[in-house]
Write a structure and sequence with these properties.
Helix content: 10-25%
CATH architecture of the largest domain: 2-Layer Sandwich
Distance between the termini: 23 Å
Radius of gyration: 19 Å
CATH class of the largest domain: Alpha Beta
Structural class: alpha+beta
Number of strands: 11
Order of helices and strands: EHEEHEEEHEEEHHEE
Length: 258
C-alpha cells in the first residue's frame, strides 16, 4: 500500500501522563497517539517523538513522526486524529515530510521554556499546574548572569541524571540561546539547544533559582559546566513548569503542510 511520511505537532497537558514514552502499565503520550493512529488505520502504527518528555512535562511543540497510508493527506489526518484524541492532547499542525525524515535524529534544535511564579497568585489552581511557585525573592541580575554562561558548546554532565546517557557519551550540548524574560506574575526561562540531557533544563533552572535566592555562589552555574559529575547540582525544578515549545528541522525535509 502506498504510504507517506508525516510530522504531527502536538500540544499536551503533561499532568495526566507518565511522560512521552510508551509504558506497559501507565498512560503515556506515545501510547495514546499510537492507539489513536491504530484506530484510524486499523493496524499498529508507530509514533516517534522528537523528545521523551518526563511525567508532568507539557508540550506546545512536540514533533511526532509517523508513516501513514497515502490517502491520508496532512489536512485530513489532522482533523481525524483530533476528533479521536482525548482533551489533553491536540494536533496543532500536520506536515508531509520527505521519507528520510526522523522526528528525533533529523532535528536541528529543540526549544524549552520554564515558568517560575513569583507572586502570591502563582498558587492559584489556574496557574499552579503550569508553573513553579517560588516563595522567596529572586535577584533578577543573578538569573541573567547565570543564563549568560550557557550559550555555546559545553559539557552538561553536572546537569544530567547519572547513568541515563551511554558511558562514552561526552555529555556535550550546543546551546543556541538561553535567557530569562519577565512576565506578569513571574519569569520565564527559555533555552534552545541541539540536544538536551535527562532533566537538564530542570537542573539548570533549579540551580539558577538557588543562586538568585542567595543560597549558592553567583558563579555556581558557570563553575558546574566544568564539573565531572552531578554531585553539586541543585535539586531539579518541578516537572510541571517545563514546556517543550518547538523542534526545528531543515526546511528541505518539508513537502506540504496543513
Amino acid at each position: 500500500m502506498p504510504e507517506r511520511t508525516v510530522q504531527l505537532v502536538l500540544h499536551y497537558d503533561g499532568g495526566g501522563f507518565a511522560g512521552w514514552q510508551r509504558q506497559p502499565d501507565a498512560r503515556t503520550v506515545q501510547g495514546v497517539v499510537e492507539e489513536t493512529l491504530g484506530r484510524l488505520f486499523a493496524g499498529p502504527t508507530r509514533a516517534v517523538g522528537a523528545g521523551r518528555t518526563d511525567a508532568g512535562v507539557h508540550a506546545r511543540g512536540q514533533a511526532v513522526g509517523a508513516v501513514v497510508p497515502e490517502k491520508w493527506t496532512p489536512e485530513k489526518l489532522r482533523r481525524a486524529v483530533n476528533a479521536l484524541l482525548p482533551e489533553d492532547i491536540w494536533v496543532a499542525a500536520t506536515y508531509e515530510m520527505r521519507p528520510e525524515f526522523h522526528a528525533r535524529y533529523s532535528a536541528l534544535s529543540r526549544r524549552y521554556s520554564y515558568r517560575v511564579g513569583t507572586d502570591d497568585a502563582a498558587h492559584s489552581p489556574f496557574r499552579a499546574p503550569w508553573e513553579w511557585a517560588v516563595r522567596h525573592g529572586l535577584d533578577r541580575a543573578l538569573l541573567d548572569r547565570s543564563a549568560s554562561a550557557l550559550p555555546g558548546d559545553h559539557c552538561f554532565r553536572a546537569y544530567a541524571v547519572r547513568g541515563t546517557a551511554p558511558s562514552d557519551d561526552p555529555h556535550r550540548c550546543t546551546v543556541i540561546a538561553a535567557r530569562w524574560d519577565d512576565r506578569a506574575g513571574g519569569l520565564t526561562f527559555e533555552i534552545e539547544a541541539n540536544r538536551f540531557l535527562h532533566h537538564m533544563v530542570r537542573f539548570l533552572v533549579g540551580t539558577m533559582v538557588e543562586v538568585a535566592a542567595g543560597k549558592r555562589d553567583p558563579c555556581t552555574v558557570m563553575r558546574l559546566l566544568d564539573a565531572p559529575d552531578n554531585s553539586e547540582v541543585s535539586p531539579p525544578a518541578p516537572a510541571h513548569g517545563l514546556v517543550l515549545e518547538a523542534v526545528r528541522y531543515p526546511p528541505e525535509l518539508y513537502l506540504s503542510a496543513a
